[in-house]
Amino acid sequence: MATIVGCICTSHIPAIGGALAKGLESEPYWQPFFDCFPPVRAWLDRVQPDVAVVFYNDHGLNFFLDNMPTFAVGAAEEYLNADEGWGIPPLGLYPGDPKLSWHVMQSLVSEEFDPASCQRMLVDHAFAIPMQLLWPDKGSGPRASVPIAINTVQHPLPSPRRCYKLGQAVGRAIASYPEDLKVVVVGTGGLSHQLEGARAGHINKAFDLLCMSKLVDDPTALIRYSIDDLVETKGSQGVELIMWIAARAAMTGSVTKIHSNYHIPISNTAAGLLVLENRDPPQFM
Ligand code: DHB
Ligand code: FE
């Protein structure tokens, strides 16, 4: 059977791709951000996931305002990261696992979720930058991924409660997959951030740290918030927390915190990293 080895919640700020392309990792601005990744890569080396299931939000590369699914599951043989206009190098193709994707779809629909199934899907920076951070050498990464997009662009957005339930359902789908696969679940997005308007650059460190701590020990504490609460508290793009909530909810048992980091700001955004190992399946020592 498939097992979830753990989850990784990380930022996906496009400027990270620029810093990597220019080799700026040890510059003073970037070092406190990039320094948190070697321990995560060491953990990934230890657990060796076969597949990554990635909750991310498309920002207009694949879906636009005229056609915006609330939830969309990638079911393609491969996913292309194309140019979005950020001035960063596109990262090419990522192999999919349609069989696992369709199993997840089947399981979600039987649990009364109605995601779009995408047999063709471009993946934007919110998918590709975290993949690049976690597996700088693409060949060393998981053999496939299943991208799951959550709408954070065109209101109404799904609530934290709904995304928690989605994550739980995805966790059950993975746990019921008959192949012996090790799956890492990834949730991408910033903590506080607002890119536009009078509050551009708004960051609420206290609330971000509260969210990070609740994600470890008490994730359901976060489902009481509405989307409007998140916008007000942590900025209009701070709603990207819902991807982290979904990823955390996919953990099928109790978790151990492997690593975390919080650094402000990167660009306009609070950059966070949280790695949780599932305690119930075998430990990967
Ligand atoms: C930034 C953050 C994001 O989450 C994003 O999708 C794009 C840009 C930023 O802070 O620059
Ligand atoms: Fe974003």
Explain what the structure shows.
- This protein is of the alpha/beta class and 285 residues long.
- The chain has one domain: 3-Layer(aba) Sandwich (Protocatechuate 4,5-dioxygenase, Chain B).
- Helix content is 32%, strand content 23%.
- The protein has helices at 14-21, 31-34, 37-47, 98-110, 125-134, 160-175, 205-217, 227-234, 241-249, and strands at 3-10, 51-56, 71-74, 78-81, 92-95, 116-118, 144-150, 182-188, 255-266, 269-278.
- Helix 6 (160-175) runs parallel beside helix 9.
- The longest helix has 16 residues, at 160-175.
- The protein is globular, with a radius of gyration of 17 Å.
- The model has no long low-confidence stretch (mean pLDDT 96).
- It binds 3,4-dihydroxybenzoic acid and fe (iii) ion.
- 3,4-dihydroxybenzoic acid (DHB) binds next to helix 1.
Which helices and strands occur, and which strands form pairs?
Blueprint: E1 3-10, H1 14-21, H2 31-34, H3 37-47, E2 51-56, E3 71-74, E4 78-81, E5 92-95, H4 98-110, E6 116-118, H5 125-134, E7 144-150, H6 160-175, E8 182-188, H7 205-217, H8 227-234, H9 241-249, E9 255-266, E10 269-278
Parallel strand pairs: 1-8, 2-7, 2-8, 3-6
Antiparallel strand pairs: 1-10, 3-7, 4-5, 9-10
Helix pairs in contact: 4-6, 6-9
The structure holds 3,4-dihydroxybenzoic acid and fe (iii) ion.
3,4-dihydroxybenzoic acid (DHB) binds next to helix 1.
